[in-house]
Design a protein that fits this description.
It is globular and about 70 Å long. It is built from four helices and 14 strands. It is of the alpha+beta class. A four-stranded antiparallel β-sheet has the order 1-4-2-3, covered by helices on one side. Strands 5-6-8-7 form a four-stranded antiparallel β-sheet. Strands 9-14-13-10 form a four-stranded antiparallel β-sheet, with no helix packed on it.
């Protein structure tokens, strides 16, 4: 379980519990979960319902019981670096050549295995909720939500494009100083992994680039993904 404490200010006077919690980032799914959980929302020792009104000075205690199962894949002591951590999120630098999630071919060599080991070493336990999956060969920052509410808030931020993703890449040749690549991408025929530009069948993919350096026939680019592909 995870417990949250909220103090109701004057601007929230008269709001229903449901509206107030929506504004705190609780998703529709989480609100349904709270409705079905006994004594999940308490004010002055009294169980509140979603339709109840709040008043200035109220103190709410919201208890969120984890509904997802804890990961059943093995915990493995693999190396990765923690960049930032608090009670809500864990940000790690995923090493190159490490898959993010376990699969049939990669069951015990993934970031999920490594994070599960890290959790257990700290006496913690929560589902592996990776908010921005990176490809196996790509290294970079990955955000892991420690509970369902932080996952809901981050997921909403991603949908609203409030979280921006930038990549560094080395490419062959001397590019323009900046520009935009707008070319649809589709799966390469006969492959489940490879993608290619395909103007007939591809989905729109927009990437903005800025050249940071150029040397020995190579360009270092800062890439900003607009569409996520």
């Amino acid at each position: 379980t995870k417990t949250f404490f909220y103090s109701v200010s004057a601007k929230d006077e008269g709001k229903t519990v449901e509206l107030f919690l929506k504004e705190q980032g609780f998703s529709h799914h989480l609100l349904i979960h709270l409705k079905k959980t006994k004594e999940s929302i308490i004010r002055d020792g009294v169980w509140l319902y979603m339709r109840d009104e709040l008043h200035t000075g109220d103190c709410l205690t919201v208890t969120l019981t984890e509904s997802e199962t804890i990961s059943d894949f093995p915990a493995v002591p693999l190396s990765f670096s923690v960049v930032y951590e608090d009670e809500d999120i864990l940000i790690v630098n995923k090493p190159p050549h490490m898959p993010t999630h376990p699969s049939m071919q990669n069951y015990d060599n993934t970031l999920a295995n490594a994070v599960l080991w890290y959790q257990k070493s700290k006496g913690e336990s929560y589902p592996f909720r990776c908010m921005n999956r990176l490809d196996k060969d790509t290294t970079g920052l990955t955000i892991i939500a420690k509970h369902a509410l932080s996952a809901a808030i981050l997921s909403s931020s991603i949908k609203k494009r409030e979280i921006k993703r930038e990549y560094l890449a080395i490419v062959t040749g001397e590019t323009e100083e900046s520009g935009t690549i707008d070319a649809p991408i589709a799966r390469k025929e006969g492959s489940i992994l490879e993608r290619r530009v395909d103007f007939a069948n591809g989905e729109r993919a927009v990437t903005h680039y800025k050249r940071l350096a150029c040397q020995n026939g190579l360009s270092l680019l800062l890439l900003s993904l607009e569409t996520g592909r």
